Amino acid sequence: MGEKRRALLIATDTYSDKTFRRLRTPRADADALAAVLTDPAIGGYEVETLHNPPAHEANLTIEDLFAAARSDELALLHISGHGIKDDYGRLHLAMTNSRHDRLNATAVNAQFVRNQMDNTRSRGVVVLLDCCFAGAFPAGSAHRTGENAGVLDQLGGRGSAVMTSSSALEYSFEPDDPDGSTVTGTAQSSVFTAALVKGLRTGAADRNGDGLVDVDELYEFIYEEVRAARKPQTPGLDSRFQGRLIVASSNAPRLPADLGRAARSTLPAVRSAAVEELAALLSSGTPSTADAARTALAELADDDSRTVSTAAKAALGGIGTAAPEEPTRSTSPPVRLRRKRLTFGRLLIGAALAAAAIALASLIVDAIGGRGTTAGEDPATKSCAYQPNEAAASGPPPPSGEVPTTGIVHATINTNIGPIPVALNRSLAPCAVASFVALAESGFYDRTGCADSGQYALRCGFDREPGYAVPVETRSEPQIRSGVLWQMPGHSTELMFSFADPVAQPVEFTALGTVSREGLVVIGNKVHENLAASNEHLADVVINDVVVQE
């Protein structure tokens, strides 16, 4: 991370207006975050901390932060304390001198922060809000006291990421107040910021193991930590940044990037395959890589899949190994609160991947558990006969014979709208995956067209014939879920990228694997360039080439 980084941390725990309850954790949280951000091995930020500033000082310092940042610098703002929504639904951040009845004059207006974000020259902006949303409405008021304060809508902007600790509101109306107008809120700052600090300090937020922590990775780690703490809050993220917005470096021992992704895959079969590679690194890797492998195996030893956990324990020796105190892998996607038109692509991600994980988990069990073998047959391979079709012609078929039935093939489908990384699982359709690899490496998919397939899938590669027939590996399911890469029967070259759940109906298809989070973002952004009911504009998509990384 060569660019300069600036951070402003504002912590308010004491208020002159007794409407606002005194908070316990903001200062300690700010101090802990400052220690991590200033660490040269992690953040390397230039940090300024304000504790209980009056509103005018906070406003001036916020403006200074964004005004001073150059185009090659990253600006980070962290505010912890009370958040209040006024009668018009506008968010204000309470400072030590704030008055609940004079918010415009005595608090930091969220629109003011947004304006500074929009006006800065900084290449990237990160805003972290750790606050509850205490309202100022008396009992019986018709105002929207139970709604989200709209912080993501008010602060989200191009080239920025806004992360919030909660979308929930907690109010306490004081029964002994004469006019019933005193409203106090209880802060939930410690859980959110503690997770933030933990993810950066330990490197656990480096989800793909590449040594860098971006905003999306950090959010996913925080989300899982907060949910594991069983607190009634759901962190939110609005990331409006093209590319990766790197927040910090990871000082944790590193695994090869592909292996790190495999160890954290939502698919048990992929995690199981990763265990074998991790075990090999224990003895053959460098000391730091071996440490990283040992840490990953310790986590997998507590995996919710018995097959994975048993293999991981065996790799570690089975005695005296315990998983670190990490949250249980969530079966629910992180909730990202975004405006539909601009950010629908990212909103697809969590739900699509969760659905794909559930759908493909059962497919993998069927594929592995239901594959019968006869005496002398190697269950790790399958015989595939590719029959030439001279009428359709585009080149010789791949060699017939034994192909692997285990393992993951990673490929990047480069299109004119961006790269779509996919993971093909050989256990689902060994012959079809082998055919895809052969076609991709021959350049078959280069400059092929795409189209929509109803309201739920991008269909590519259908306009060419391979010159041979692929053995049938179809299955019947009630529904093809979003996030799945698949083919229709008899269409052995096409690639169907599901980006939404269709109406449930029995369907025959060949399951190839899953579409990555990045790929779903690319497709989702294209889908919602046009909000019309049809997706005819998907015909603009063209595959430039396919790069296979086995």
Automatic annotation (TrEMBL):
Transmembrane segments: 344-365
Chain residue ranges for the region called Disordered: 318-337, 379-402
All copies of domain Peptidase C14 caspase, residue ranges: 4-240
GO biological process, one term: proteolysis
Entry-linked InterPro entries: Cyclophilin-like_dom_sf (IPR029000), EF_Hand_1_Ca_BS (IPR018247), Pept_C14_caspase (IPR011600)
Keywords, comma-separated and alphabetical: Isomerase, Membrane, Transmembrane, Transmembrane helix
GO molecular function list: cysteine-type endopeptidase activity; isomerase activity
Pfam families with a match to the protein in the record: Peptidase_C14 (PF00656)
Protein name, UniProt field: Caspase domain-containing protein
Protein's organism: Saccharopolyspora kobensis
